[in-house]
């Protein structure tokens, strides 16, 4: 026994002596190796190594599909129940009768809510980078409803989902007579659904960190590594971002429900580690999700919604256009397309679709291209993130093989 123990200790002592001769302790060597591996993973992007990145993306996708299939099989009772409910709804949908009116109403509301919840999840869940769906979809939607309400003097145009364009009702009120609260009520459903989606997007890191803390296993996540590094550097942190993140972490950990609610209720770019923090410190699920849902879907969404509505109210928009015209030299040339765009939108509001010829405006063309570029970048970031996850699998597999030798 003693001989065996001594023989096992010899390689470790030789490895430690070698590291000391190189001026490195075992801990520093491990950290250096992890840093190098992290740099290798982050260098795997589609614009540098396209063939390898796409190959690893496909392999990681197949692994994820296999894992999800296994998880669905473990919860086959729930899957069967969902399939039965969908089958009953399909039968009701295709069967003639008076109930068709209610089925169509439920379908319309469900798809509308699912659309905005999905956009909210895309904005929050990450996968390398979030798709900023508030700037691309919800914000412009609220702005268009606001401009239409002030122009029509009413919010009685069709309930969501809207047709291809909003048209003022025939019995519209006096132009500009609509109230701020009426506009907020008009866009409340989609805004709250989007906020609920962002709250749901915070759940994966929470469950990952919670499972890692309970099992003691090392989680396979870059954000969790950043969180652990932040905790290690807590004492000597000097930069503003690290100190601010630590402040959010301390508030969430010590204040609990109201701390999470306060951090989730304001536009807070530092909330990205809140799910990991709550999972790591074993904050109860309903404390975390309840506070996040109330903060993001109700409080924060009303703040953001109010800001967009005020910013796009009729008199402020006109003042902004006039300010653009007052810019020396380039002002009039910049003011013209904005004025033309607003005039075209006003004309559309007072005519049914197709009755007014519309000319392509460069502002709408630029916005469409910006949306397209951001969506493409989001897709590319998913490909890069999945390929990097597969690279980490290979690195972990290599480490486990080295340990067994």
Automatic annotation (TrEMBL):
Annotated region Disordered: the residues are 1-35
Residue ranges, compositional bias (Basic and acidic residues) = 16-35
Keyword hit for Membrane: yes
> Where are its TM segments located?
78-95, 115-138, 251-267, 273-294, 306-327, 362-383
What top-level branch of life does the organism fall under? Eukaryota
Q: What keywords sit in the KW lines?
A: Membrane, Transmembrane, Transmembrane helix
Q: What is this protein called?
A: Vacuole membrane protein 1
